[in-house]
Transcriptional regulator, LacI family (Fontibacillus panacisegetis), 686 residues
Amino acid sequence: MASITIIDIAKMCGVGVTTVSRAINNHPDISEETKAMIMQVIKENHYVPNNSARNLKRSASKTIAVLIKGITNAFFNRLIQVFEKEIQQKKYSFILQRVDDKEDELEVAIELEKEKRLRGIVFLGGYFSHAKEKLEQLSVPYVLCTIGMTEEFDPNEYSSVSVDDFKESYKMVDYLCSQGHKKIALISATMDDVSIGKLRLEGYKKALADHGLAYNERLVRCMKEDLESYSMKNGYVVTKELLESEDEFTAIFAISDSLAIGACKAIFEAGKRIPEDYSVAGFDGVDISYYYNPSITTIRQPAEDIAEETIKILFDLIHKKTTHIHKVFPAELVVRESTMRIE
Amino acid sequence: MASITIIDIAKMCGVGVTTVSRAINNHPDISEETKAMIMQVIKENHYVPNNSARNLKRSASKTIAVLIKGITNAFFNRLIQVFEKEIQQKKYSFILQRVDDKEDELEVAIELEKEKRLRGIVFLGGYFSHAKEKLEQLSVPYVLCTIGMTEEFDPNEYSSVSVDDFKESYKMVDYLCSQGHKKIALISATMDDVSIGKLRLEGYKKALADHGLAYNERLVRCMKEDLESYSMKNGYVVTKELLESEDEFTAIFAISDSLAIGACKAIFEAGKRIPEDYSVAGFDGVDISYYYNPSITTIRQPAEDIAEETIKILFDLIHKKTTHIHKVFPAELVVRESTMRIE
C-alpha cells in the first residue's frame, strides 16, 4: 500500500499540517478535542509519523554505528544495551555491526561510513592497531570503547573510554600473591594484541616483580588463534594443555570471565577442585561470574558508566564541544568462591 | 576529504573505468601488470571501491533487519552470527535491532521498514501476538524465528522456523519422569505468552498426564515480569521463592538454560546439591550449559540450521520463489550431570 503522509492526514481531518504535527508531538497549543480527532484518524489509517515523539524516532541521515569484535562476549551485551538506549534518546539511528576476529574493523568502518552516511562510530572490543594514514580516512568522529591505541599514537588525536588495564590486572595478581600464590598462570591475549592484551600482561608481570616472584613465561598461555577469542572454549583448551604440561601452578588468572569459566571446566574434568586445588580468577564481572559454581573472583568493570561516557564523548565530538579525551574508570576487585589463601 | 571515485582512479591510471573495475573485481580480461598498477594507485589514494568483491559489500537500498527480543539470551548469539554471515553473502546489509521486553516488535518493524526501506525482516525471540490488520501494515516479507503465532492465525499467511516446542518440552519432562521424578517444577514463561511459552507448558502437562502424574499448578512458576525475561536472575528469583515455599519437588525444568543456571544458583545458596537433592534441566543447549558445574541436562536446538533456514525462506519470499512455509527442526535431549535417577 502507498505510504500515507502527514499531508494526507491533514486533508482527511480538514486541518493544517501544523495542527497534525502539534497533535502528534503533544504540543500545548491544540485543543484536546482536535487532538483526539486527529489521533483517531491517524490510528484508523495506520499512519506512522516520521517525527513521532516516541523514542523510536530514527532518521536515515543520522546514524551511529557500533562496530563490535567478539559479540559472544557477555560483557559487551551490557554495553550494547546502554549504547542503544542513549543513541535512541538522542534521536539517532543505531547500527550494530559485528566484525570477525580476523576482519579489519577500520576497513569495515570506512566502507560503512560511506554507505550509511554515518555521523559517528564506536569501536568496541578487539584491539586497535592501525596506521595513522588509514585512520585519517575516517571523516566522522569515533570513540574507542574498552580498547586503547599503542603508545606511539598521539593521544590528542583520538578518544577512548576504558578501565586502566595495567592497573586492574596488577590489582588481581597482587591479590592472588597476597593469598600466598607464587605460581600464577595467565591466560592472556595473543601476542599481537598490543593494546589491552599487552597492558594486562604487563600488569601481571609488575605484580609478580613487586612480590619478588620470578616471571615464568611457560605459565603465560595465549588464547588459541584458531578458536574464537575470549570464548569459554578457548579458556578450556588452553587450560587443558596447561594441566597436561609439567608446569606447576596454584592459581590461574584469565583475562576474561568467559576464559575463566572454560578454565574451571578443564580443571573439573581433570578431577581437581576449585579453589582447593587451583584458584581461578577472571576479568569483566559479567553475570555468569556470579552465577557460576563456584562463583568467580573477578575484576568488575563499570559497564554502564563506560557505555554512557562513550556515547557522551562521541556526541560532544560530533557537536564539536570537546577535544579528544581519554576517560579511565576504576574497576573493582570482587573476591568470591573461586580463589582461596594457600600456605 | 572529498571522496575519490572510480572515475578519479581511472584518470590517474590513464585507463578506462571498465579497466579499473576489472582490476578490482579480479576479472580475467586484464593483464597482471595493469592490474598491479591500478591496485597500487587505489591503495595509495585510499580508494574504497563501492562494488568491492569483498563480502562487505552492502547497499543502502538492500537491507534486512533482524528484530530481537532478549538480546542477552546466549542462544540468540549463535543465530545472529549465522544471520549476519548469510545476509552478507547475499550482498544485503544487516541491521540488528534490539526490542525491549515490553516494546511492540511490530510497531518497531513498521517504523523501521519505512525509514530504512527494508527488503525483509526476521522476528527473533519474544512471543508474537498481533492483530491481523496490523500485521498487514508490513509490506515486506518476514519470517518468525524460534517463535510461532497463535492457532487462530492462518498458517498460510506467514512463515516460521522453529523446533516443535510442545514435543521437545514433552521429551524433557518424559525423561525426568522416566528417572523416577514425580514432583517436577516448571519455570515457565508468563501466562500471556501464548506462543512458545504456552506450547512448552502444554508439553509439560501432557508428559505428566502420560505418566499418570497429577498436574499441580503450584509447581508451575512463571518468570517475573519485572525482571528481564529468560535471564539467570529471573530463574534465580523464581527458584528461591519456590524453595522457600512449602511445595515439594525433586526436579526443576526451566524453559531456558539461563533460567536453569539461575535455578542452580538458588539451590546452591540454600545449601542443597545438584543432582543429589534436586535435578535441574534447561532448554536451548547454549555453550554455558556444557561449561556450567554441574553441566546442565538440556534440549539442544539446532541453532545453525534454524538460522540458515530462516534466511533461506526469507530470500525465497523476497524473490517470490515460495509460498509461506513452516519449518520445524528436531531438537535433541542431552543428558548431563545436573539430573539423576531417584527411587
